[in-house]
Automatic annotation (TrEMBL):
This is Enoyl-CoA hydratase-related protein. CDD domains: crotonase-like. PANTHER family: ENOYL-COA HYDRATASE, MITOCHONDRIAL, ENOYL-COA HYDRATASE-RELATED. Keywords: Lyase. Pfam families: ECH_1. Belongs to the enoyl-CoA hydratase/isomerase family. InterPro entries: ClpP/crotonase-like_dom_sf (IPR029045), Enoyl-CoA_hyd/isom_CS (IPR018376), Enoyl-CoA_hydra/iso (IPR001753), Enoyl-CoA_hydra_C (IPR014748).
Amino acid sequence: NPYQDLLTDTVGGSVLLLTLNRSDARNALRNNTLRELAAALAQAEQDSAVRVVVITGGPKVFAAGADIKEMAQLDAIGALTDPRPQYWKAIASFSKPLIAAVNGYALGGGCELMMHADIAIAGAGARFGQPEINLGTMPGAGGTQRLIRTVGKPLAMKMVLSGEMLDAAGALAAGLIAEVTADEQTIERALALATTIAAKSPLAVRMAKEALLKSFEMGLDAGLNLERKSFSLLAASADRQEGIAAFLDKRQPVFAGN
Ligand code: HXC
């Protein structure tokens, strides 16, 4: 394992499981943690065997946010020139599916990390919050922008301005997470979902992810245009011929990735 703050496992040959491994600091995301996450994803991006990545934390804490002790050292210019935004950007630009398996607390940067994932699965005991306001500051890794786009204004305002946490049922109702499981089954369920997605055509998966995410940035007309072009381009892929042929032959498709 080349990492200090992360454990890596390959599951079933096509799913990479990344586990935050700094439980003594409640998986606080120090710069090194984000640097390692970005590096692990950059490697997964290059590795065609990796189809889906699952990120998880510990049983009681997914991640307790930015490392407050590290952040305390930063003045304004330090924060401006900090490498963190570049690591977050690298995580956000990962082109393969990223699934978060969340147990326990996902707070501040931990909740923001979860929102960088494409799908979040959480245990029934999970708690979500943006408590930065309690420290006299505010979210700095997408917690205002991604949260409001995901759960809408009333709840995003309540969470960011009050620091109050949401439980798993509330997060599910708000659309912040996709599923709630029993706490002991969160990782298993996330890996099963990852395995399902890993068996699909990686080209179709990548283009669908891109089109879905671009909806946050594009107007409807431009978004529909991107969707149509991606859909058309996929008609040139061998996997699309295979998928349609398999359906017509009443057999399971085998996607080669081209
Ligand atoms: C650095 C942290 C930390 C954090 C916990 N620790 N969270 N260190 N950064 N975000 C450290 C504690 O200082 C303590 O270290 C050890 O982890 C155990 O913490 P406890 O509080 O005793 O653990 P527990 O009772 O299990 O409670 C877990 C918790 C709580 C509910 C997650 O730790 C918590 O509320 N943490 C802070 C959450 C938060 O405010 N996050 C937002 C971060 S701000 P020692 O050395 O005493 O053992 C952010 C961006 C802005 O994300 C930052 C601007 C400054």
